[in-house]
Amino acid sequence: MLASAKAVIEKTRPALEEALRETGFPLLITGHSLGAGTAILCTVLLSRVSPLSGSPKMRCFAYAPPPVVGPLSNSALRGLTIYSFINRADVVPRASLANVFHLGLECMAVDRLELYHHRFNLMRRDAAPENAEETKAKQSILDAVKECQDERARKHHESFPPLFVAGQVYWIEWQGQVGSVEDVNLDSTERRPRIHMAKAESFQSLLLRGGTNALKDHMCGRYKEGLEGYKVHLKASGGCNCVIQ
């Protein structure tokens, strides 16, 4: 993505310089998925590394962006106008090498547990009656995962530094669905999108309980549906405290 961002800038800089000089307009940079990561990096490069003449005002709208920056305290990120949108269980904004690595550590920690036949019952997707032994087995899994997460909070792996989604992050929630992330069969009229301001740190783990939505929620159509649905909600309710420009 960094190579793509540099290539895009190299190919478009002459046209950008001419257009901005003649019009004085601000510059809008946008993209989806890998394009969103590239757009974010283009914004950083054009603002901090190789600025355009006249330093025009720039805004970046990134939809389903991969985590491409870190740490968030880096001075190169200060003052940039970047809006990042994450739809529900979308896996891409959570898919950093660090998150995958730590998920592997959690899986190995669970695999070392003496769960025996409880493994098959715990892997069932449908609700099943629990007995005391299964409850104890579930708790042992939660404890093993929590221990890995606590260790990560104390010390990051030097080979896999944490990466984050850049800018002001907005999370699209779908109300009226179980857990807001799982697969359910609901009529489209029952799907009520809401958008919340979120912190980039909230997406430092892979969300596996989303079923197929971890991939489906990444599609452009899902983002369009969420944004347009929320626009309808704003018009009907007279607005809210969450401002999207």
From TrEMBL:
Uppermost EC category: hydrolase
InterPro entries: AB_hydrolase_fold, DAG_Lipase-Related, Fungal_lipase-type
A Pfam cross-reference name: Lipase_3
Record's bilayer topology term: Multi-pass membrane protein
The enzyme's E.C. designation: 3.1.1.116
Principal location class: membrane
UniProt KW Cell membrane keyword: yes
GO annotation, biological process: lipid catabolic process
Domain Fungal lipase-type: 2-98
Molecular function in Gene Ontology: lipase activity; metal ion binding
Recorded GO CC terms: plasma membrane
Domain of life, per lineage: Eukaryota
Catalytic activity: a 1,2-diacyl-sn-glycerol + H2O = a 2-acylglycerol + a fatty acid + H(+)
Places the protein is found: Cell membrane
Entry-linked Gene3D superfamilies: alpha/beta hydrolase
Keywords: Calcium, Cell membrane, Hydrolase, Lipid degradation, Lipid metabolism, Membrane, Metal-binding, Phosphoprotein, Transmembrane, Transmembrane helix
Cofactor or coenzyme needed: Ca(2+)
Annotated protein name in UniProt: sn-1-specific diacylglycerol lipase
Source organism of this protein record: Cladocopium goreaui
